[in-house]
Amino acid sequence: MKSHVRAIAFSVLLSALFLGACGGAAAPAATEAPAMVYEVAPAEIPAAAESEAGADAAKQDLGSSALPVYNTGAESSAASTIHMIIKNAEIKLQVESTDIAIDRATQVVGDADGYIISSRVWYQAHYDGKNYKYATITIGVPVQQFERTLSRLRGLAVQVVDETASGEDVTDQFVDLQSQLTNLEATRERIKSFLDQAKTVDEALRINQELANVEAQIEQIKGQMNYLQDRSSYSTITINFEPVLPEILPTPTPEPIPWQPGETFKDARETVTRAYQGIMDFLIWFFVVLVPILAPPVLVIWLLWKLFTRKPNKPA
Fold first, then answer.
1. 113: alpha, beta or left, given left = phi > 0 and alpha = psi -120 to 50?
2. Distance in angstroms (rounded) separating the CA atoms of residues 81 and 142
3. Which of 51, 199, 285, 307 is deepest in the core (most CB within 10 A)?
């Protein structure tokens, strides 16, 4: 019985030693696997770098690092998520006081780190004879402050009469310009190498002319790219202020007066009565006032006229 127990224990001990030896051999293999280094020869660089600029960049990366470089596409996906959008808006506000609204709008622009592009102020007469002030201001604000600035401008108005907002995506245009710039810069470097190899003055002049043309195109594309970057970084908002005008009262439409012969007869009778009353009043004033006052002088003047105009009697 003891011999069987010893045999079983011995077999268990051998199994444990065998399993420990296998585990120890497998562990170094697992740790050594990640340490393997794959060398990449210059001929194994992907042919995706078709332009010389891409080939130069790949060579520089290969020379600067002994480890292989793989294009994972992370940069291209990150670049595709960046959109360059030119935002524009135009808003018309009806305000109580144009001067106060202009001051508050200027404060809003300053808080948003923006600037005033242009402004115009004019006066317009109303039917009540007064001149009312109108204004138009064009501002530029950072694209991050576009919606917030519009919201604050709406708070300045009694009523928002009209509002229009639009956006133009220029991402594709900017990417195209960037590709053109890369190709032109590679062409410029190639032309410079040709210039170094020129043997005659005529060849050097022709190559220098081509180099000048390429550099002019490079500067033009850079200017377009800077313009797109500036326009997409700052949004343009045009603000129109107009004052609250007094209400125009409607002009009443005159109603036609119907013909009333009874009223006409009454008016005519009253007119005749007033006429006779006037004549009688005049006669009373004439005989009561004027005759007593004018009769004595007239009588004296008549008697004197008769006395001086009398002819003397002829002798018989």
1. left
2. 20
3. 51
